[in-house]
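Troubleshooting log. The previous structure file for this entry was overwritten by mistake, so regenerating from the original sequence record. Sequence copied from the archived sheet and checked twice against the printout by T.R.
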Amino acid sequence: MRLTVLGSCGAWPSAGQACSGYLVEQDGFRLVVDLGYATVPRLLAHVPAELVDAVFITHGHPDHCADLNPLLRARHLRDDKPALLPVYALPGALDAVLALDRPGMLDDAYVLHEFTAGDRLKFGPFRADTRLLPHWVPNAGVRLSAGGRTLAYTGDTGPSSEVVELGRDADLLLAEATFADRVPEDSRSDLSSADQAARQATAAGAGRLALTHLWPGADPEAALAAARERYDGEVDIATGGLVIDL
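Regenerated output below.
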């Protein structure tokens, strides 16, 4: 299983960067997990739009789904249209982004599969187990298993025992860590820190930890230092362009 980070900025993309988006590949199958601002140009550097096999969106905030629109345009506005792109999301999560174009314009570009957090899904060689994690809007963490390897990804989440279960014995936990240590009071139920992500990775027995969704302008070294205080395994910052083979 190969993970390629397309972007990982929280809220908005820093100069030259992109928001949350990840290309996950197994046996030639290309799954995109989240498509935040500015991720599509980076995706197209790795795979043509028509060769993306499926998309999974954790939640409806635009820093996780806004670039679904240009991906669908790239598949629709061509003479040789590919097969409908399977798109998986929680109910209503994509209503806003799918309404950006005139009604019906992109209907021949995708097929929407809405699921309930807790469902088990299948994308090509991937088995996907989903969990509802705490955030301002419904957010589905996902555990992807294929080829004897497991990648767990939180989307955006407040601290929760469900994150530990999501990442239980995973080869890699890709965890939201907007802040290095202290989360502002108004966000403590809905976002996490590197310190919290590391505690949860340790409790889960995850083999490796990658911190993502850092606030633009945040010091990645501070996030790494905070995580390494609480987690003994390998820790990465999920910067755009990072490739991890599991």
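DSSP finds seven helices and 14 strands in the chain. Archived copy saved in two places this time.
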